[in-house]
Amino acid sequence: MDERDEIKKKIIKRALIHIPFEGWTQDVLERAAIEEGYDPSFGWRLFPSGPIEAISYWSHLLDQEMLHALLSPENLKVREKVTLAVKTRLMLLIPYREAARKTANFLSLPHHMARGTKLLYQTVNEIWYYAGDTSTDYNFYTKRGLLAWVYSATFLYWLRDHSDNFENTWTFLDRRIEEVLTLPKLPQKILRRLRPWKQDG
Length: 201
Description:
The protein is built from ten helices and no strands. The chain has helices at 3-22, 26-35, 42-45, 51-69, 78-91, 97-107, 113-130, 138-160, 167-182, 185-200. Helix 5 (78-91) packs antiparallel against helix 9 and helix 7 crosses helix 8 (138-160). 25% of the residues are buried.
């Protein structure tokens, strides 16, 4: 990480202290720059597109921290890798839960939804690569679409979860993963039911 990225990271981390109370604003970024000992102009010079660019950078940092924290995948099954990665990504947000809520609200605005979708795709793409996915056909997009649904649903559940150590969230995640794993089996079930008719015809 070069000096520019180090400064951006410091400003983001400082801004996250204020986000739960004030949301993502240009003023927050400039104040965070001042509190880190930089000129307030760093708040817009490093994030020229404003808060949406700062959010994108934070998401990138979280993805990289997730990959760094994950165990070597050699001895894990694909399901275990995916579950562990989603859990790890959410656990990184625990100190910033209210900031994460504000971020979700910000990205749900119509003019920010496209960026939110892109950031979600980048996260699930990193998870699948960690899990060892090398597909290039339609499965590439199917897997990412399904995992995006799992991650989004689990994230929203986590925001409302008050159980000890978020145990209810991890149970919810396991169930969603199980649901996704049963989907590819459906066409085979249908084919097995149709097979006798094909033989008779």
